[in-house]
Design a protein that fits this description.
alpha/beta; FAD/NAD(P)-binding domain; D-Amino Acid Oxidase, Chain A, domain 2; eight-stranded mixed β-sheet; 11 helices; globular; binds flavin-adenine dinucleotide
Length: 434
């Protein structure tokens, strides 16, 4: 199979990654060309697959390939929320009843727990924070009603939450923009690029990571021939964990679309400006609508994430103007509304929120289709995919396998027209939550 679309390339680097020292990519090709397992894509999902394979098969060398440098892809471009949301109603025969949601949350919680353990064991400096307020907040009456319903669902699932009044939100975050909030299902907040780099730099010795190595072709049957920008490799098993870019291998082409969303960081703010962002040194706000705006006060800066565009990255100056307006609306009193870093990131979106997961052909394993919550969900799915390949059963794996796959999507141009219409409609509905 020859690649039909390009590996990811972005208009600007991730602000999170830019705050870290320059990374020297691992580009050394070992003499070995044949491996039992090759993993394609070293985001959170691919790192988890490679790590777990190495744990389950000590002594075996695993090759992990990525087209870019670690933390340059979506895994280093996100907002750093470690969420346990059960996701869209995409469960299998069990439907989306309370018990199912509880099991889904347990699955993603296992991803959080594994990440925490790795951060502690390897002393990964990624600003891991569990006590910071991470609130889902509404700016509109419609958003407030929606959050109220979410709160009821949490209660039905037995999840403790708490309310935040407009005054609480003003105290915490310094803005009068929001009228009501509830504690979100965020279990930790991190510096995502630092976490991603830390995980890559502490892979078990059995894993050989090659960055700046694009997979350009993949044969259909085992042993797989993997054509890359650094020559060919052969493997008995291939794990496709490059998310949306799995489409390049003919996987999920009629199941996933690419949606870009955008982030920006202010410069480091002085004491006076930080005080205008509320009394808490760090906080996170998630929107009441999925087309809304996410924010964080972190590391002496404000982070803002918003906007959605179909399959194509928007012009950086238009993105900057959009994010600046959203920042100004929420914090009119700031001295400037300047950003130091503005970037885009690509995620995979499926119609029903479900993922491609499993062994789709003998020896070919896939976990793809990750939109939001990919830090935790990608991590646990990667771990479970390795366990599936190695025949390690568990309740979590059964729960994961019991889910439906993504719905079929019509071909272009109907698909694009439908997606763009839906984005425009939902943005309109989101109103001031944007
Ligand atoms: C702005 C933004 C904010 C977000 N906020 C959050 C958040 O707060 N919390 C959260 O959990 N999620 C968030 N997400 C989503 C999250 O980043 C993704 O769900 C997650 O990165 C998916 O991980 P992954 O490993 O499956 O895929 P990716 O991170 O996309 O990794 C895939 C890797 O495959 C590589 N690749 C692609 N093609 C090839 C090829 N042909 N050969 C070799 N390698 C290839 C890419 O370079 C990439 O490194 C956000 C995303 C964006 C863009």
């Amino acid at each position: 199979m020859t690649i039909r679309e390009k590996a990811p390339a972005y208009a600007a680097p991730s602000g999170w990654n830019a705050l870290l020292p320059k990374r020297i990519a691992r580009e050394r090709v070992s003499g070995e060309r044949r491996f039992r397992s090759v993993v394609v894509g070293a985001g959170y999902t691919g790192l988890a697959v490679a790590r777990r394979l190495a744990e389950l098969a000590p002594g075996e060398e695993i090759l992990l390939l990525d087209a870019t440098t670690i933390a340059d892809g979506a895994s280093g471009r996100n907002s750093g929320y470690l969420l346990i949301n059960p996701g869209e109603p995409s469960a299998g025969a069990a439907g989306f009843a309370g018990e199912w949601a509880v099991r889904q949350m347990a699955l993603v919680q296992a991803g959080v727990d594994w990440l925490r353990e790795l951060v502690v064991t390897n002393a990964i400096a990624c600003n891991w924070q569990e006590a910071v307020p991470a609130i889902t907040a509404a700016a509109t009456p419609r958003g407030q009603t929606s959050i109220g319903r979410t709160r009821e669902r949490y209660e039905a699932w037995g999840v403790a939450t708490r309310d935040y009044s407009a005054a609480d939100l003003r105290h915490i975050a310094g803005t009068t923009y929001y009228r009501y909030g509830i504690q979100s299902l965020t279990r930790a907040l991190v510096q995502p690029a630092a976490l991603h780099r830390g995980l890559a730099d502490h892979l078990p010795t059995g894993v050989t990571l090659l960055e700046n190595t694009t997979v350009r072709g993949l044969s259909k049957t085992t042993p797989f021939k993997i054509e890359t920008s650094r020559g060919d490799f052969v493997a008995d098993r291939v794990f496709v964990t490059n998310n949306l870019h799995a489409r390049a291998f003919g996987i999920g082409c009629d199941r996933m679309v690419g949606i870009y969303t955008y982030g920006a960081f202010t410069p480091e703010l002085d004491r006076h400006q930080l005080a205008l962002l509320g009394e808490m040194p760090e906080w996170g706000i998630l929107p009441a609508h999925r087309m809304g705006t996410t924010m964080r006060k972190t590391m002496g800066r404000l982070l803002i994430r918003s906007g959605d565009s179909y399959e194509r990255e928007r012009d950086p100056s238009a993105v900057q103007a959009m994010l600046t307006a959203l920042y100004r609306n929420r914090f009119p009193a700031m001295r400037t509304h300047e950003f130091e870093h503005v970037w885009g990131g690509l995620t995979a979106v499926t119609h029903n929120g479900a993922f491609l997961f499993g062994e789709i052909r003998p020896g070919l394993f896939v976990s793809a289709g990750c939109g939001g919550a990919g830090v935790t969900r990608g991590t646990i799915q990667g771990k479970l995919l390795a366990e599936l390949a190695c025949g390690v059963p568990s309740q979590l794996l059964s729960d994961r396998l019991a889910q439906n796959g993504p719905d079929w999507l019509p071909p272009e141009p109907i698909r694009g027209a439908g997606a763009k219409l839906q984005i425009a409609w939902e943005q309109w509905i989101a109103g001031a939550e944007r």
